[in-house]
Amino acid sequence: PLPALAIVGRPNVGKSTLVNRIIGRREAVVQDKPGVTRDRVSYEAEWAGRRFKVVDTGGWEQDVLGLDASVAAQAEYAIETADAVVFVVDSTVGATDTDEAVVKLLRRSGKPVVLCANKVDGQSGEADATALWSLGLGQPHPVSSLHGRGTGDMLDAVLEAL
Ligand code: GDP
Ligand code: MG
């Protein structure tokens, strides 16, 4: 079986947009409204000649559990079944309490984590990415999933983690 890369993070940080970038197609459903990810969440991807599975998350965001518990539950399941994880943070917002809760799960899992500082659409956003060193997950990779900026460098790090 192909190695599995899970994409986790809060609603609306750009997980599905990043998945579309990685797979080079528009299959993961992106919405301005948080919480929209359709049921089929696993896609085949390739980078630098290596194939892997990329798993989008977020389909249960409107669950009765409430936001924090729902994000945590999805992240926990995705992390468990993955070989490596991309943790996506909205760098324009910064780290929230929900993000910190996911960081705890990631630490406990012992799985390799690549930190994606998303929505760095231009040079002026780089400082926001740098601030995410505070999460203690190592280097934040500045990325614009919307425009493709920085995704190649991040995927190079992903291949080292997978
Ligand atoms: P998800 O809920 O984490 O899957 O987030 P989505 O991929 O559905 O994206 C939520 C919103 O953020 C959409 O309006 C996207 O267009 C927007 N978005 C995603 N990535 C970026 C980015 O790199 N830059 C900017 N400016 N917006 C982004
Ligand atoms: Mg989504």
Automatic annotation (TrEMBL):
Binding site for GTP 1: 9-16, 56-60, 118-121
Source species, domain of life: Bacteria
Coiled coil: none
Domain called EngA-type G: residue spans: 3-162
Subunit-level organization: Associates with the 50S ribosomal subunit.
Family, per entry: Belongs to the TRAFAC class TrmE-Era-EngA-EngB-Septin-like GTPase superfamily. EngA (Der) GTPase family.
Function as written in the Swiss-Prot or TrEMBL entry: GTPase that plays an essential role in the late steps of ribosome biogenesis.
Annotated protein name in UniProt: GTPase Der
